[in-house]
């Protein structure tokens, strides 16, 4: 993704966790259903299991709102957080149903039993479905879930984490590779990705710290900035335009917000509702 390319006729559309507004998040069903619209890319989150498998999951634990335990039991929030994926073998994680409970914020979700897939499964399933649709494989925005003070507890050290994800991409993506973007809120992960790979990197931000301070802490200008859409102030937009830093913003769902953000000159929009974005933009 070349810098200075953020001013497009329309922003690129990325399905957030597949299409969280329509199917349970980060499941095979969500990624495959998102392909029913001509979106540009898929956004997903990855963590590691105890046996070093790259698991597609937003949290490195079980979200009790949307996941059942390995024996089908309902979990309290405390029990869900106690189910640390980094301390569990993938065989146990796979027994947890994360598709039968509707997310309380997404009433349109169609439910069906689903497990947390491996990254390799998502890559292979999306490639097969794209071929059936006679479409190129979409771009991938892959967020590595990492907290600065949780190394060894919820995730490995950044360089180890990045290297494991890169190895999975190398093993399971067909060449020529689709467009890939490695993302994280953790500056250390973005730094490790820049050191270990030539893939574009994206720094995600959700706080009110000035973007120039984030870049100063990072030590270099990332290829893409990923701010929450409520942070798209005139100052941030001007700074990124001057720095020729493309913006892929998240998570934009309301039609009014989609319309407003699409006019700001951002490079991309991540949304839980690719159907809404496709309709609005005439895709």
TrEMBL record:
Give the superkingdom in one word. Bacteria
Q: Which PROSITE patterns match?
A: GP_PDE
Start and end residues of each GP-PDE domain: 11-281
Molecular function (Gene Ontology), one example: phosphoric diester hydrolase activity
Q: Name one Pfam family in it.
A: GDPD
Gene Ontology biological process terms from the UniProt entry: lipid metabolic process
InterPro entries, per database record: GP_PDE_dom (IPR030395), PLC-like_Pdiesterase_TIM-brl (IPR017946)
The record's section on Gene3D superfamilies has: Phosphatidylinositol (PI) phosphodiesterase
The record's SUPFAM superfamilies line, in alphabetical order, gives:
PLC-like phosphodiesterases
Task: Tell me what this protein is called.
Answer: Glycerophosphodiester phosphodiesterase
- Origin organism of this chain? Hymenobacter oligotrophus
């Amino acid at each position: 993704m070349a810098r200075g390319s953020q001013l497009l006729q329309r922003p690129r559309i990325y399905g957030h966790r597949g299409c969280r507004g329509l199917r349970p998040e980060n499941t095979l069903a969500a990624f495959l259903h998102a392909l029913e619209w001509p979106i540009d890319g898929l956004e997903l989150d990855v963590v590691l299991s105890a046996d070093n498998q790259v698991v597609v999951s937003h949290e490195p634990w079980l979200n009790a709102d949307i996941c059942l335990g390995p024996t089908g039991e309902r979990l309290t929030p405390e029990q869900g957080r106690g189910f640390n994926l980094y301390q569990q073998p993938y065989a146990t994680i796979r027994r947890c149903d994360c598709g039968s409970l509707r997310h309380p914020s997404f009433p349109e979700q169609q439910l069906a039993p689903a497990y947390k897939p491996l990254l390799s499964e998502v890559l292979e399933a999306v490639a097969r479905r794209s071929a059936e649709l006679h479409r190129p494989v979409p771009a991938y925005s892959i967020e590595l879930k990492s907290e600065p003070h949780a190394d060894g507890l919820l995730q490995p050290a950044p360089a180890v984490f990045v290297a494991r994800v890169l190895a999975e991409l190398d093993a399971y993506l067909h060449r020529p590779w689709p467009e890939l973007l490695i993302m994280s809120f953790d500056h250390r992960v973005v730094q490790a990705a820049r050191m270990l790979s030539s893939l574009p990197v994206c720094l995600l931000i959700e706080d009110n710290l000035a973007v120039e301070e984030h870049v100063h802490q990072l030590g270099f200008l990332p290829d893409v900035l990923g701010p929450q859409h409520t942070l798209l102030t005139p100052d941030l937009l001007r700074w990124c335009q001057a720095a020729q830093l493309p913006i892929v913003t998240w998570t934009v769902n309301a039609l009014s917000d989609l319309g407003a953000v699409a006019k700001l000159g951002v490079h991309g929009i991540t949304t839980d509702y690719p159907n809404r974005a496709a309709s609005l933009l005439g895709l």
